[in-house]
Amino acid sequence: MTKFLLSVHVLAAILAVGSITVAASMFPRYALRALGGGGDGDVEAADDRAPGIAALLHRVCRAYAVAGLAVPVFGIATAVQLDVLTDAWLIASLILTMIAAGLLALVILPRQRALLDRAADASDPARGARRAAARLAMLTGIFNLLWATVTVLMIVRPGSTTGA
């Protein structure tokens, strides 16, 4: 049973969290293009496909955020099976996971939605767009760094049975 739980945990992490990290990292660039915030030959110059791509990336982030709930659920189930639920490395991983989930749900997804709404508003969508996209990119980088840290903790955890 432990191998099954661990397999589902790892697969969910790869598929869900991996998809979120990629889509969230790409979102600011396409949102900025949708807002026409690049200008003067910049890579982020307005692009007719950009609003659709940005909207798709936001939907990917939202959908996989829900699917990503399987990662801690199966991770905790695996930890119970391995009797490591009170180990410091696991508690640290759970705390970092909660911070990452909170950052995604409470900050990143709403800011993505706000940029999409600005792109749809015809009044002056590009005003402050570069700064908003840069902040979102920074927050997404923090989200990705949190997940990278959790991954490292899972691999080099103290008392690992792999002998590595």
Quick overview of this protein structure:
The chain crosses the membrane at residues 6-27, 63-82, 88-109, 136-156. This protein has helices at residues 2-35, 50-67, 70-82, 88-120, 129-155.
Elements, N to C (H/E): HHHHH
Average pLDDT number: 88
Helicity, as a percent range: over 70%
Per DSSP, the total helix count is: 5
The description of the largest β-sheet is:
none
What Rg, in angstroms, do the CA atoms define? 19 Å
- Domain count: 1
Strand content: under 5%
Distance between the termini: 23 Å
Structural class category: mainly alpha
Low-confidence stretches: none
What is the β-strand count? 0
Keywords: Membrane, Transmembrane, Transmembrane helix
Organism: Streptomyces venezuelae
Protein name: Integral membrane protein
Transmembrane segments: 6-27, 63-82, 88-109, 136-156
Q: What does this molecule look like?
A:
- This protein is mainly α and 164 residues long.
- It has one domain.
- The protein is 76% helix and 0% strand.
- The chain is built from five helices and no strands.
- It has helices spanning 2-35, 50-67, 70-82, 88-120, 129-155.
- The chain is elongated, with a radius of gyration of 19 Å.
